Amino acid sequence: MASITLRQLAHSYDGINYALQSLDHVWQQGGAYALLGPSGCGKSTLLNIISGLLEPSNGEVLFDDVCVNKLTPQQRNIAQVFQFPVVYDAMTVRENLAFPLENMRMDKPQIKRKVDQIAALLDLTNNLDRKAKSLSADDKQKISMGRGLVRDDVSAILFDEPLTVIDPHLKWKLRRKLKEIHERLNITMVYVTHDQLEAATFADEIAVMYQGKIVQFGTPQSLFDKPNHTFVGYFIGSPGMNFIAVNLKGEALSQQNTRFSLKASWLDTLAECGSGNIKLGIRPEHIRIVEQPTDTSYSAEVEFIEQLGDHQIVTVQFMQQRWHIRIGENQFCDPTQVHFELPQTYLRLYVDEYLIEPESLAADKTRQGGYG
Ligand SMILES: Nc1ncnc2c1ncn2[C@@H]1O[C@H](COP(=O)(O)OP(=O)(O)OP(=O)(O)O)[C@@H](O)[C@H]1O
């Protein structure tokens, strides 16, 4: 078991475009992590570099502070579970689970003990003597997972979208199972997915990837509350954060003659940044609909309202942007025009796509070398 450190890790398949930009990151030993991002952001590339299937163009992968770049996948002792189950159909479940241990020349009683333990953990005990080919896709995927879990010597287990072939109603069960296994075995687990719900149910902390970079690493709650990049705001949440591009004019932020009043400290901060790429963001949950226009309210045309069980999503056109507002299941909303307030506590300010918090600006500027 090991902590995994990425040090200035980058990868290009063609020597021109970089699938991974320079990554610096640490996954602590024993943590349950998710790597979340859209298709093509570099998740599989990163996983294959960690497991040793791919050699990075630049930088290092360290297991417990030891560089493993030159080690083969076997030498790294990484177990990898892929989208599609990797099982020997002609073997029984027991033989499949025992296979990695037989390769290690473990003695027979020990193999039996280990296989029985993992089978019990994965609810496979009743199927131990059945041929793998007779089992359903989710049982086969459980065997794939089991083959990684039986070995005591694994440094970490990497899951690459392991629930893709699983029936939707069984996905939740299997996710819970993985979480339970993680708690019991204390192995470093990295779970790759493009599904935020999967990431949040499995992981204690999530690394959000975008265009070859880890743009934020944190708990599911922190990603929701304080997305530090506009992409995270948009990608996390259902629907994601609303954004509007604004201009700093004198003492206010504005867009098409609409002014957004902000704390004075924010305006000072913006004046210091000197960038023209400024966005305001707010989550659909945090917009407050009011019955009548007020001095501090904004208005938008309603496009449609969706009833989604315990809440409704109101889709509006706000200054040529499509915005979403989340309201209660029984809350009334005028189907043509809506008035709403944007509480300052929930407004987030982004410069050059990154979150700006006035009080931390000095530190950010030092770290990132300014915003100019
Ligand atoms: N073998 C390869 N040769 C060339 N380019 C590749 C190769 N594999 C991936 N890429 C490119 O590298 C980038 C990252 O791909 P990668 O498969 O790592 O992303 P991903 O986030 O895992 O996507 P997905 O969720 O679709 O699997 C993409 O632009 C992809 O086209």
Automatic annotation (TrEMBL):
Q: What Gene Ontology molecular-function terms does this entry list?
A: ATP binding
Q: Which Pfam families match?
A: ABC_tran (PF00005), OB_MalK (PF17912)
What residue stretches are annotated with the ABC transporter domain?
4-236
Which InterPro entries does its entry note?
Answer: AAA+_ATPase, ABC_transporter-like_ATP-bd, ABC_transpr_FbpC, ABC_transpr_MalK/UgpC-like, Mo/tungstate-bd_C_term_dom, NA-bd_OB-fold, OB_MalK-like, P-loop_NTPase
Q: Which SUPFAM superfamilies match?
A: MOP-like (SSF50331), P-loop containing nucleoside triphosphate hydrolases (SSF52540)
Classification via SMART domains: AAA
Q: Which domain of life is it from?
A: Bacteria
Give the keywords, sorted: ATP-binding, Cell membrane, Membrane, Nucleotide-binding, Transport
Q: Kindly indicate whether the keyword GTP-binding belongs to this entry.
A: no
Q: Which PANTHER family match?
A: ABC TRANSPORTER ATP-BINDING PROTEIN, MALTODEXTRIN IMPORT ATP-BINDING PROTEIN MSMX
This one is known as ABC transporter ATP-binding protein
